[in-house]
Write a structure and sequence with these properties.
6-stranded mixed β-sheet, alpha+beta, 19 helices, 38 strands, 22% strand
Length: 766
């Protein structure tokens, strides 16, 4: 009680203290089901902020391929859960949130009663396997807690977590045939060859250990585990489904029943109990990247007892602490749910990747100790450099520095001498383009969050940008652009390399390295080399210097762009919008371009072959459901009609973010989509990370209090806030008129108050 009463006078009664000092409950405004259908690909399960264990139901077993070809239906199951499904196959411990590709789904657990099945069966007939029907009316989720009734078995399943441990609580009916299935074959984006090896040991009648190694998006990924039960199992079986010709001399044993170890590629287990009516059987699953002993240590350190409710409460207190970094008031409850759910999504990843003793598996598969930082993984950098990491630089700066240190550790372990591109679980999967770790590093340094080795970081950035073998980079350095006839998505690569080079220049400037600054400032102008003045769009060039002749500015397929078209990507010059204005012919021309982009119609045929772009994420030809265009609404600030930024930002917030399962317009992509909403709801956005400036938009909140790590507080307030009052009439900074469409990072981290006066008519600020 004293923790909350320390600032109150001692004359207050204790009951009064309790009334006035209760911590605020932010988790009640989070809806984990937002984005669990269509392209949102989030998961509704249990996890703590940035948790290594992200424990959630999986609702089907869609294979990655069918008849030797990619199965497009698997794309819906990137996070394992689809709201429209009616069956659950079990609860696995690792998930990505909102990625357009996937992996993970490790250590699936499923409780059953009755006849024993060791295959999941089919959704159309759950009697053929261990899966169960469920209903959303018997399902509930909130941060660090998930509950569902498994209708086929009359079992209530409840999940909660610590950082490295998943805790299950199953309430069984009375039966002599209760089973807990552990499926080590199951995975997300699965295929027959994905499991490289699995190994399991029954240490005693309540503890089992083992590991699973897979080759998927991460091609060498090993997850060690320790599982303990709250009551001894009566019998057990570990079944290897491999069709092996050679079985060695293990063949002399019956390994399927009560035999304490097994190994293979297709291991499924069952542990059997007798239960009284409403008896609760709990199990804890601890993960480690290092060893089974590391998993046991994680279990003992984080969840030594069996108090499910206490662990749930502790995790929810962690969520309240993190969500409380920004306290908002909004016009509607829906806006508040959208805001705090976005905060929740933004704090799901990157994820902690080290044991409680600070050991972790490195990129070279050796074991390291994180001596002066917390090690993280799950770096979806093509997405998250844009807004998620800039958001962390405001409300999670210390954590973001640890993420930078994790990236530098990755670099030090890389035989390629490359900063991470898209990395997870001690692997580089090389997904997407650019070398956007340099943006994250430079953004942190420029904004004063430089608690890492800056000279080493600059060296790592420069080396990454000079690796000629990487994705057309040698041709980019030689020609000033990536040629389409040599390396596909060439325009996107050229534009993104140019932005990254500008980021390196900003880091070099901070370190007074004029030589590097000049070199990379020059490289950052390479966007000009793919602009075709004759048509006014970015266009792919060939190695002979000519522009590609067969070209369609609307198509997202085979035109030199990745997950986008020329209409959107031609605006990707975030580090130099003034040059973009000049190339297009002036402010009026940029305004006309943007007006057309937002109001034209893009026929389905132009994005039919691009999974990450759907009608749900489009406004005209503007693609909000995918990341390359996220800065575009703010570009009106460089035209003669800056209030159009305010109109379109508010429109996007209202159309593309809604508190329902299909309420996201595209993949959340590890928090990027949500970070865009958080910034935009607060009234500003980082158009060019590594710049200290933010472009002003249209704040959605009526008030926001940002609690900064430096002990200061920034209050954002709005006057005359209303549904139709989307236009900023005036901005006050600490009570004084602020005549600019841009905020500086120092304005934010210095604390104080920013006041937006709103109205229903456009008005120029300057």
């Amino acid at each position: 009680m004293g923790k909350y009463c320390s600032t109150l006078t001692i004359t207050l009664l204790f009951s009064t203290c309790a009334i006035f000092a209760q911590p605020k409950n932010y988790i009640k405004w989070v809806n984990p089901f937002i984005g669990t259908e269509r392209m949102g690909h989030t998961f509704p399960g249990a996890t703590v902020p940035f948790g290594a264990v992200q424990l959630s139901p999986d609702t089907d077993t869609i294979p990655y391929s069918s008849n030797g070809k990619y199965n497009p239906d698997v794309y819906k199951y990137c996070a394992g859960y689809q709201y429209g499904d009616s069956t659950i196959i079990g609860f696995s411990h690792t998930h990505f949130s909102g990625t357009g590709h996937s992996d993970l789904g490790d250590i699936l657990v499923m409780p059953t009663v009755g006849k024993l099945y060791l295959n999941p069966g089919t959704a159309s007939n759950t009697n053929t396997g261990y899966r169960s029907k469920f209903s959303h009316s018997n399902e509930f989720a909130e941060p660090n807690y998930y509950r569902v009734k498994l209708l086929d078995y009359n079992i209530l399943a409840e999940l909660t977590t610590t950082t490295r441990v998943g805790l299950h609580r199953y309430t069984f009916p009375e039966t002599d045939s209760a089973h807990i299935i552990i499926d080590l074959v199951h995975g997300i984006y699965n295929y027959p060859e994905k499991n490289v090896w699995t190994f399991i040991r029954v240490e005693n009648d309540t503890l089992i250990t083992g590991y699973r190694q897979t080759s998927g998006w991460a091609r060498t990924r090993t997850v060690y585990f320790a599982i303990t039960f709250s009551k001894p199992f009566k019998t057990y079986g570990i079944i290897n489904g491999d069709k092996l010709i050679y079985k060695g001399f293990w063949r002399k044993f019956n390994q399927n029943t009560n035999f304490p170890e097994n190994a293979g590629r297709e291991i499924r287990c069952h542990f059997d109990f007798s239960t009284a009516n409403h008896e609760q059987v709990l199990l804890k699953v601890a993960l480690s990247s290092v060893s089974t002993s590391g998993a046991v240590e994680n279990l003992n350190a984080e969840a030594p007892g069996w108090d499910f409710d206490a662990i749930k409460k502790e995790g929810q207190e962690q969520w309240n602490d993190e969500l409380g970094k920004i306290e908002v008031e909004t016009l509607t409850d829906s806006d508040k749910v959208n805001f705090y759910t976005s905060m929740y999504h933004a704090f799901l990843s990157p994820t902690i990747y080290m044991d409680t003793d600070r050991k972790y598996r490195g990129l070279d598969q050796n074991i390291y100790t994180a001596t002066n930082f917390d090690n993280y993984t799950t770096f979806s950098l093509w997405d998250t450099y844009r807004a998620l990491h800039p958001l962390f630089n405001i409300i999670q700066p210390k954590r973001n520095v640890d993420m930078v240190k994790s990236m530098l550790a990755h670099y030090s372990q890389s035989v390629h001498r490359m900063l991470p591109i898209w990395s997870h679980y001690a692997n580089e999967n090389w997904c997407m383009i650019g070398y956007h770790a340099v943006s994250v590093i430079a953004d942190a340094a420029v904004k004063g969050n430089d608690g890492f080795d800056l000279p080493y970081a600059l060296m790592a950035c420069v080396q990454s940008a000079k690796n000629n073998w990487y994705d057309g980079l040698g041709f980019y350095r030689e020609l000033g652009y990536v040629p389409e006839d040599i390396s596909g998505s060439s325009v996107s690569k050229t534009l993104e390399y140019a932005y990254d080079d500008w980021c390196i220049a900003q880091l070099a400037k901070k370190l007074d390295r004029e030589d590097i600054y000049n070199e990379f400032t020059s490289r950052s102008n390479n966007f000009q080399n793919v602009f075709d003045k004759s048509i006014g769009f970015m266009r792919p060039r060939l190695s002979n210097g000519s522009f590609k002749t067969s070209f369609n500015v609307l198509s997202t397929h085979g035109q030199g762009f990745i997950e986008g078209n020329s209409w959107n990507y031609s605006l990707y010059v975030p580090h130099n919008p003034d040059a973009l204005v000049s190339m297009l012919g002036g402010k009026k021309q940029l305004r006309a371009y943007l007006d057309t982009l937002f109001t034209m119609h893009l026929p389905d045929e132009y994005f039919a072959e691009t999974e990450d772009i759907t009608r749900d994420g489009l406004i005209g030809n503007y693609v909000h459901g995918n990341e390359p265009s996220h800065h575009v609404p703010y570009l009106y600030n460089w035209t003669d009609t800056p209030w159009k930024t305010q109109y379109w930002v508010r429109t996007i917030c209202n159309l593309m973010y809604q508190p329902k399962p299909d309420g996201l317009s595209g993949n959340d992509d590890c928090g990027q989509m949500s970070a865009w909403y958080i910034f935009s709801a607060l009234g500003f956005y980082p158009v060019a990370p590594a710049s200290p400036n933010y472009a002003i938009g249209s704040p959605l909140v009526t008030k926001a209090t940002i609690k900064l790590e430096n002990g200061k507080t920034l209050t954002i307030s709005t006057q005359n806030q209303a549904k139709n009052n989307v236009y900023v009439q005036k901005v006050l900074l600490n009570g004084k008129p602020y005549n600019s469409y841009f905020l500086n990072h120092s304005d934010i981290v210095s604390g104080g108050e920013i006041t937006f006066i709103m109205g229903d008519k456009p008005k120029k600020l300057m």
